[in-house]
Amino acid sequence: MVGEGVCRVFICACCLNKGFYLFYLVVMCVVNVTFAVPEELHNIMRRHPEVKWSEIARKAMWDYARRLELMERLTSESRLSEKDVLELDKKVKTGLAKKYRELKSQGGKQ
C-alpha cells in the first residue's frame, strides 16, 4: 500500500578547498509503503532492532528496479517475439545441459 508523499529538505555542504564551502539544498520526496511479511521474518526483525530494516528493504527494491529498467532498455528495440525468446532460451539451456553432462562424464576435465 502506498501512502501520502513527504518531501524532506537537507542542507548539505562540501569543502572545496582551503576553507571554502559549497552549500546546497537537497529535496527528496518520498512516499511511505506498507507491506506484509511472514510472522517468522517479523520475529527475526523484532529480535534485531539495531538493523535499519527499512533501509535494507529500500536497497533491495532499488536493486530490483534497476535490473527491471536494464531489462527494459535491453529489450526495448528487440525484434524478437516472446515465442522467439522462449525458443532461444530452450536451445541455450539444452546446450548448457549437454556441455555439463559431457564435462561430468569426463570427470570435470575440460
Give the tags:
110 residues, alpha+beta, 2 strands
Summarize the structure.
The chain has 110 residues and is α+β, with helices and mostly antiparallel strands.
Helix content: 40-55%
Low-confidence region ranges: none
Q: What does the largest sheet look like?
A: 2 strands, antiparallel
Q: Classify the secondary structure makeup into a structural class.
A: alpha+beta
Strand line-up across the major sheet: 1-2
DSSP strand (E) fraction? 25-35%
How many helices? The count is: 3
Silhouette = extended
- Using only C-alpha atoms, the radius of gyration works out to 24 Å
| Total count of strands | 2
N to C succession of SSEs: EEHHH
What is the terminal separation in angstroms?
Answer: 52 Å
